[in-house]
Amino acid sequence: MPSPRPKEKARPFSERLTINQERLLADLNAISRIGIGDRGSVTRLVFSVTELRSRQLLVHLMTQAGLKVQVDRIGNIFGRLEGGSGPAVLAGSHLDSVVHGGKFDGPVGVIGALEAVRTLKEADVALPCPVEAVCFVGEESSRFGFSTLGSSLVAGQVKMKDLTNAVDARGTKLEDVLAGLGVYRDSLPALKRDPKSIKAYLELHIEQGPVLEAKKKKIGVVTAIAAPTRLRVVFTGQADHSGTTPMEMRKDALAAAAHLIAYVEVIARANSAMEKGRVVGTVGAIKIDPGVINAIPGKAELSIDIRSISGKAKERVARAVEARAREIATAREMKVDILPIRSEEPVDLDEGLIHVIEEICQEKKIAYEVMPSGAGHDAMQIAKIAPAGMIFVPSKKGISHSPLEWTDPEEICLGAQILLETILRVAHEAR
Ligand code: GLV
Ligand code: MN
Ligand code: MN
Hints:
Elements: H1 21-32, H2 49-64, E1 68-71, E2 77-81, E3 88-94, H3 107-122, E4 131-136, H4 149-154, H5 160-163, H6 174-180, E5 198-206, H7 211-214, E6 219-225, E7 227-236, E8 240-241, H8 253-272, E9 279-289, E10 295-296, E11 299-308, H9 311-331, E12 335-343, E13 347-348, H10 351-363, E14 368-373, H11 379-382, E15 388-393, H12 409-428
Parallel strand pairs: 3-4, 3-5, 5-15, 6-14
Antiparallel strand pairs: 1-2, 2-4, 6-13, 6-15, 7-11, 7-12, 8-10, 9-11
Helix pairs in contact: 1-3, 3-12, 8-9, 10-12
One manganese (II) ion binds next to loops.
C-alpha cells in the first residue's frame, strides 16, 4: 500500500504533488488492449463495440476514483471533481482510434487527465474551482470522414448539413448512427455545453510528428492547430469488359481518379514550400466499383484530406483540386460529384495557457519547444468556446496512426505531471 500523501490544504498548488506513474501506465495499458490486433495495432473505430468498451472502462475507472461521472447523449464522458465555485478546468482527449493505429493517440490525454484529477482527489487539495477529466467521442475521421465529432457538438460547431456526406465504408450514414442515439437535427444545440461552465480546456497528446525527438525536447507547447478541408470526389464512368473494350472507347473511372491523386500530391507539394502557408494533401481512401481484375472500373470514390495552419492556403489548394477534378472529368466525358464533408478554420490556442505551460517547463528545467500542431485535436473545437491549451510529448521517429507509434513511459509520465501542474495553476488563476 502506498503511504497516504500529506494534505495540500496549506499549499494549494504545490509542485510536490506528483501523479502515480504506475497507475497511469497500467490504465493506459488496459485501454490499449481493447481493440488490439496484428503487430500490436489498435482499432477502435467510433461507435464500434471496441470503442464502446474502452469508454465503459473509463467510466469504471472514473467511478472507482470517486469522480462524479456524467455521460452526455452522444457518449462524451465527464468525470468531475468538485471544488470551490465557478467554471471548471477541463482536461482530456479521445479513446477512439484509426484502423490499425497505435496505443497512444488519444488515450495518453484521457488517462493523463484522469490521473491528474485522481491525484488531486487523493491529496484532498483545496480546489478553487471544479476540475473535470474528459473523453470526447469520435475525434478520428477514420470511420465517417468526420473528425472531432463529440467535441464539435460540445462546442456547438456541428450543423446537420455538415453530416450529410459523412458515410462509412459500409454505407452507414453518420446521421443515422446519431439518430440511433437520439441525436436529431433539432437536438444538436442541446449537446452544446454552456461556455460559461468551462474556465479552460487542456489536452495532453503525443506529437505525432518528428520535431521534439529531432530537437531533443521533452515537451511541446502548442500554439495553433492546423485544420482540415475534406472532400469526397466520385468519378462515374462506365463499367465494362476489360478484354473486349478498346482503349479509346473506355470510361475508366479509376484512371481518371489516378490523375487526381497525382495532382493532390503535386499541388500540396508546391504549397508546402511556403513557411506560413504550408499545406498537406492526402488521398487516404479509395473505393472502386466493381473492383475486380477483369472489369473496367465504373466508379471511383476518393476521400481527400487537405490541411494547413493557414485557412487561405488550404482553401486555395482545395479549390484547385476541385477545378482539376472537373477538368479531368470533362476531358474524359464522365461525371464527377464533389461532395464536401467539412471545412474548418485553423485555430490559435490561448496565449495565457501557452505562457503557463512554458513557465512550468522553465521552472522545472525541462527542454521544451513552442510549436504548431499539424494533426487535428478536440482542443481545436473547445478553443472556439473557451481558452484551450495543449501539451505534446515526443513520438518516436515521429510515427503515428500506425502500430509503430511509440512514446517512452517516462515521457508520458512527464507530460501527465506537467498537465497536473498546469491544471492547478489555471484553477488558481483569476481569469
Ligand atoms: C487526428 O489524428 C487527425 O489529425 O486526423
Ligand atoms: Mn489520430
Ligand atoms: Mn488524437
